Here is the input.
Amino acid sequence: MRAVVMVSGGGTNLQAILDAVRDGKITNTEICGVISNRTDAYALERAKKAGIPAVCVSRKAYATRAEFETALLAAVDSLKPDLIVLAGFLVIIPAEMIRRYERRIINIHPSLIPSFCGDGFYGLHVHEQVLARGVKVTGATVHYVDEGTDTGPILLQKAVAVEPNDTPEVLQRRVMEQAEWIILPQVIDAIANGRVSKDSNGNWFVTM
Ligand code: GRF
Here is the structure.
């Protein structure tokens, strides 16, 4: 399975994927490219160190959003992916891309959807709201991407405890270490090996 990873930031989820492929925890999968919308994304460095083709498609380089989206989709198409993994990618996915790659785009979100998700809930903002609400359990979710924001069918989730005196940064790191970096590789391996199915309720499940 050819997988493209789309990034905007530090790339710790990308690194977890690359390490899992190296360690045989993800099989039948080639990470055939990394696409960032930010030239300064450290994720691009991680890709280069791993010898993976890495490109940047920056909104600033295009006169209109439509031209940017066309360029982004062309970059994805050129890699001929079977799966597109959004790993901290902070760009709204063009509707045409959703259509073209229906049920072949997954996203990692740093909360237990449907809590703390949707417009404005990304990065540290998620964990700030978790602490503001005072929930005792948070976590991460991997879901298929549809036209909405964090609204696609849920594939896998993992819970993480909120501790007293947590800061958003400490909590974000715990959610990454104890959830994101575990479930994203698990879902990719399940998809690559045909272990994803719908149950009688029409809900999606991955089997380990
Ligand atoms: C982090 O906020 C993470 O929780 C979310 O995307 C952001 C960037 O992560 N999934 P990464 O280090 O670039 O993978």
